[in-house]
Amino acid sequence: MRIVFLFSAWLLSFGVMAAPGDVATLDRSTWPEQLNNPTLFDVASRAEILMFARVLLASESLDEPALAQRLGLRKINLESVNNLRERLWQRLLANYNFAQRSCDQDASFCFLVEDMDTLRQQAAKFQVSDDSYYIKWSEPSRLFHAQYLDEQLRKAALFPQVSSEVDRFGDYERNGDGMHDRLFLLTFDSAANVAPDNTDWVAQYLRKSNMSGTFFVLGKDIQTRLAERSVASLQATYSTQCIGVQGWEFRSHSHWQDWQDSVHRSVELVKSKLPENYVPLFRPPEGQRRSDAESFFKAQGLQVALWDIDAQDGAGKLKGSASAQRVLTLMLLWRHGVINFNVKQDAVKTAMPWLITQTAQSGIGWEDCQDAFR
User: Fold this and answer.
1) What 3-state DSSP class applies to 98?
2) Same domain assignment for residues 199 and 104
3) Which pLDDT band, with edges at 50, 70 and 90, does 10 fall under?
4) CB-side neighbour CA atoms (13 Å) of 119
5) pLDDT-based confidence at residue 21 (cuts at 50, 70, 90)
6) Which of 36, 40, 111, 186 is the Cys-Cys partner for 361 at CB 3.0 to 4.6 Å?
7) For residues 179 and 367, is the Cβ–Cβ distance under 8 A?
8) Distance between CA atoms of residues 283 and 244, nearest Å
């Protein structure tokens, strides 16, 4: 409680007026087609890209005070916000170019987009007619993207005073930006909950599906497990999976005096007990880490592992179905990236299987955890 109180007070010192709005999710049943081939994945992808581009463009008409009010903040880092917008536009253009390669097979949501100017022009006039096959999807999608955009803009508005996954501090930090089109990586945070811990279930499900994921563990959790069970048992749990660290405990690593020891102790424990699974990756809890940590991480041979697609399945947030549908919508929008689930929330036990089933014939791929972040 003391940590939560101090962090809350610290946020207020930067002018936070209100908590973030509702977490974005979209009922995928509003979309009238199954993603049962790569072309139909592209159709849905083009639609989500254009809708997000529409709300992103609209947000640019707000001046700084109006944007701050919309985000529930007294002050915003406008430079950070504009940097984020520029990155979003670049990724939208690249993704639409990938998605329109199948326009000769299905022309739905295919418009003339040759460069950034034409993408912005199409975004400005994008709408779905009342008699469209896709009309039931249109307004729910617009609301989803408006909420999701606000989530991202709010993080950018607070960056770097409040660090998050919205931006990187250097090339020692990685997310899914550099991944190939249609390729995704599953990752699992330990988060703060002690129970339930669904690691055994998730790892077994992945093995049965011939898949792998990266589990970011807390050193304290591994120590507790080793007190209860053998090293061999723990190794069996994580068989064929990858393990990175999230620190000794789930706590912000941006204002913790012993953050370096937290990382170092966790790494040494995992490397010594689970050497076959260990990968040199540190995931900062809630994305919070120091901006001046490059020399430390490079000296330790570590990369900071961020993410692009957040299931928002933490305590008090989205449940299984809503979480899964959020992730699928963001997969269509971003077309590649690192997905972040919370392994200590039961939502993952329904969300992940649903997601894998829904995309089984869509032409996407799941990155092997040993090949990621290289």
Assistant:
1) helix
2) no
3) very low
4) 24
5) low
6) 36
7) yes
8) 7
Asked if residue 221 is part of any domain, the answer here is: yes
Distance CA 204, CA 202 (A): 5
In whole angstroms, what is the distance from residue 264 CA to residue 284 CA? 13
Selection from 292, 277, 290, 293 nearest residue 217 by Cα: 277
Alpha-carbon distance of 348 to 319, in angstroms, equals 9
Contact 187, 195 (CB under 8 A): no
**Are residues 59 and 178 located together in one domain of the fold?**
no
Residue 173 near residue 303 (C-beta atoms within 8 A): yes
CATH number of the domain to which 332 belongs? 3.20.20.370
The C-alpha atoms of residue 193 and residue 346 are separated, in whole angstroms, by 11
Element (H, E) at 107: none
User: Structural domain of residue 151, as residue ranges?
Assistant: 2-158
Nearest by Cα to 273 from 227, 335, 337:
227
- 85: pLDDT strictly greater than 50: yes
Last residue of a domain, one of 158, 191, 223: 158
Residue 97 lies in a domain: yes
Predicted pLDDT of residue 196 = 81
Decide: pTM greater than 0.90.
yes
> Is residue 371 domain-resident?
no
% helix, strand, coil for the chain, step of 5: 50, 10, 40
Does 183 lie in the same domain as 129? Answer: no
**Sequential DSSP letters for 145-210:** HHHHHHHHHHHHHHTTTS--TTS-SSTTEE-STTSPTTEEEEEEE--S--S---HHHHHHHHHHTT
Strand partners, 305: 174
Token representation of residue 154: 């709010």
Considering the domain architecture, whether residues 274 and 154 belong to the same structural domain is answered as no
Inform me whether the pLDDT recorded for 167 exceeds 70. yes
Per the structure, how many domains does the chain have? 2
Helix axes 135-158, 38-59, angle to 10 degrees: 60
What is the rounded distance in angstroms from the CA atom of residue 59 to the CA atom of residue 245?
37
Q: Is residue 10 part of a domain?
A: yes
- Amino acid found at 276: E
